[in-house]
């Protein structure tokens, strides 16, 4: 240490720690650029493409299905068959008309 109390650059622990830090920052970092989905049978894009939020076209189709039976100006029932009363009192649908 200098008599004035100031430590020089090459003296003491400070100089050694500084040179060690410089050496450690000179190492080259390897960047992994391998395609992580190349070994899989189905690509990542195809695996997630079924989700309804992936494209606007599919999102529109799902929204149309979701609201297809609500706020319809001319509501019509999808069921056109005959209801058959069973022995326990419940109703069940039958596609054919019953003969008398």
Descriptive labels:
30% helix; alpha+beta; 3 helices; 100 residues; 2 strands; two-stranded antiparallel ribbon
Brief summary of the model shown:
The protein has helices spanning 12-25, 44-48, 56-66; strands at 82-85, 91-94. The protein is α+β, with helices and mostly antiparallel strands and 100 residues long. The mean pLDDT is 58.
Describe the fold and architecture.
It is built from three helices and two strands; from the N terminus they run αααββ. The protein is of the alpha+beta class and 100 residues long. Strands 1-2 form a two-stranded antiparallel ribbon. The chain starts with 11 loop residues before the first helix and ends in a 6-residue tail after the last strand. The model has no long low-confidence stretch (mean pLDDT 58).
Topology (SSEs and partners):
Layout: H1 12-25, H2 44-48, H3 56-66, E1 82-85, E2 91-94
Antiparallel strand pairs: 1-2
What is the rounded distance between the termini?
117 Å
- Strand sequence of the main sheet, in spatial order? 1-2
Average pLDDT reading? 58
What integer value in Å does the Rg equal? 38 Å
Number of helices: 3
Low-pLDDT runs of 5+ residues are none
Shape: rod-shaped
The arrangement of helices and strands along the chain is: HHHEE
Helix content: 25-40%
Portion of residues in beta strands equals 5-15%
- Which structural class fits the helix and strand makeup? alpha+beta
